[in-house]
Amino acid sequence: MVLDALLNSPARIAIAEFLQLELFSFPFEFDLWVFVHFFIGMLIMFILISYNSEKKLGINRYWLLLILLSAYEIFEWIFFLTDSVFFIQESLFNSFILDIGIGMLGGLVWDKS
Ligand SMILES: [Ca+2]
After folding, report:
1. Collapsing DSSP states into helix, strand and coil, what is residue 50?
2. Number of structural domains, the chain?
3. Centroid of ligand 1 to alpha carbon of 34 (angstroms)
4. What is the CA(101)–ligand 1 centre distance, in A?
5. Which domain holds residue 88?
6. 95 Cα–ligand 1 center, Å
7. Cα(85) to centroid of ligand 1, in Å?
8. How far apart are CA 90 and CA 14, in angstroms?
9. 108 CB-contact burial (10 Å; exposed 0-12 / middle 13-18 / buried 19+)
10. Residues, beta carbon < 5 Å, ion ligand 1
């Protein structure tokens, strides 16, 4: 299957391994994915502001960002629970506190800069 070939390609595995480079592991695991989550938070905030989402949807942009980041983490867990090779098991703390928190921080930094 094309998807399997893509997911198991040497380039994807190299990128995934690179991003898992552990910067420190105490008090929690902290790898390069932190920067991905941070920039994704900034990017989503940029899009929410650019499309005037608060006015159009009537929801505060920070709630929208939280909903989108949480939806992604739930999606990732569903993939993990179905034994997909694409996502690596994370602790609940890493997934729902750290990843979402870092994404929210990225959004805040974009919003305030
Ligand atoms: Ca995650």
Report:
1. helix
2. 1
3. 10
4. 11
5. 2-112
6. 4
7. 14
8. 19
9. middle
10. 95, 99
* One pLDDT digit (tens) per residue for the chain, 113 residues: 666 776 677 877 777 777 777 766 666 667 788 899 999 999 999 999 999 999 999 999 999 999 999 999 888 887 777 766 556 667 777 777 889 999 999 999 999 98
Q: What is d(CA 68, CA 60) in angstroms, rounded to the nearest whole number? A: 13
Compute the distance from residue 73 Cα to the ligand 1 centre, in Å.
5
Looking at residue 68, the DSSP 8-state letter turns out to be H
Cα–Cα distance, 24 to 17 (Å, whole number):
15
Query: 44: closest CA among 63, 16, 58?
Result: 63
What is the residue type of 18?
Answer: F
